Amino acid sequence: MVSGLPELTKICTLQSMLKVGRAMEALKKYLKRLRDTEAIAVSRELLTNLVVSENGLRAAMEDAVEFFRIDDGVDPAAELAKHKEYTATDAADPELADVIVAFKEAWDSFAANDPERLAGLQAAYITNNP
Questions:
Q1: Contact, 78 vs 86, CB < 8 A?
Q2: With 90 as the cut, is the pLDDT of residue 105 above it?
Q3: Which of these, 98, 82, 71, 96, lies nearest to 14 by C-alpha position?
Q4: Tell me, what's the pLDDT at 8?
């Protein structure tokens, strides 16, 4: 743990920090080449690579800070387990089968085929929507 900084345990934060690390390694490679090159011999390609790498590092760092800022501290594994549980509960509800059958019947009766359904739904929701 770095003094004054919280421990990084959130998956999204750890992933984003891995991206920062990879972007930093790319930039360090070009900085080393620049350091090892005579100033007069610096190529346009090297300068372009430096700028692109710096932009990539900056974007990765901004993403990491944003992920850290919005991370709500929820454990993703626990959330997945809850999601599976309520999905299984919903799937076990006998009313679900009735609802699916009713939806399919309504879908089929709306129009004869998918292109006609698309046109009808676009008209209902876009063109003729008050």
A1: no
A2: yes
A3: 71
A4: 55
